[in-house]
Amino acid sequence: MITLQEIQKRLAExxxxxxxxxxxxxxxxxxxxxxxxxxVKGDKFPALDTLANLCKILDADANYILCLE
Length: 69
Description:
Blueprint: H1 4-16, H2 22-29, H3 33-41, H4 48-58, H5 62-65
């Protein structure tokens, strides 16, 4: 069973290993940097459109983030 916690963990790891600062990612998404911090901490989960754009920006496979592979 896929859990939200596992998805959040993979998203956080992808953000941390992207080589981009949280500020830069937030700027590219046109959102507040604190949102990125919350995603990394697992306090919040991005809206689907934000998640899709994060995958594009981070060059991450959405199937990996969503634990589908």
